[in-house]
Q: What sequence folds into this?
């Protein structure tokens, strides 16, 4: 026996429902519902639970639109417009098709800047390939100088070769 006025329920016997018991309870519920359907004795709470099970959410939304809820007390007299509330507006299919074609998707500032950077880079590469940029001109001048040096070196080597051949022929 615990001492004191209050007893602690922790660690006492716990009863878990077995799967067989759960299955039996479910079957009994189904039998009750079948009997009620046959005898036309369905209560309103059973209808609501069955309506929710069958997934008639579209019916619920239609009934909300048809019958607006009546405000209680003074709140029906005072109209308050919440600026943060988003009212869902139904769009017609014909308007939706026309809107999709005419409007471009709104891009964020970062996306616009990224697209602009890519276009600028592509334009720069094109101008560079055509030789219109300062860097391209400098590269082409450097390449011309290197070609000229290589040609001069090739001429020198050839002249040295000829000179060597003439010296070997003389000997």
A:
């Amino acid at each position: 026996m615990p001492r004191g006025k209050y007893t602690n329920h922790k660690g006492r016997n716990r009863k878990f429902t077995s799967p067989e018991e759960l299955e039996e309870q479910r079957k009994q519920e189904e039998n009750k519902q079948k009997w009620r359907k046959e005898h036309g004795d369905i209560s309103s709470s059973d209808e609501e639970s069955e309506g929710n099970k069958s997934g008639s959410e579209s019916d619920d939304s239609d009934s909300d639109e048809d019958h607006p809820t009546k405000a209680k007390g003074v709140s029906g007299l005072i109209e308050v417009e919440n600026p943060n509330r988003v009212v869902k507006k139904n769009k017609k299919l014909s308007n939706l098709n026309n809107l999709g074609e005419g409007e471009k998707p709104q891009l964020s500032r970062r996306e616009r800047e990224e697209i602009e950077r890519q276009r600028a880079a592509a334009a720069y590469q094109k101008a560079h390939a055509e030789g219109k940029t300062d860097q391209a001109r400098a590269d082409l001048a450097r390449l011309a100088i290197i070609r000229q040096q290589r040609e001069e070196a090739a001429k020198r080597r050839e002249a040295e070769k000829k000179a060597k051949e003439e010296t070997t022929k003389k000997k």
Summary: The chain is about 65% helix and 0% strand. The mean pLDDT is 79.
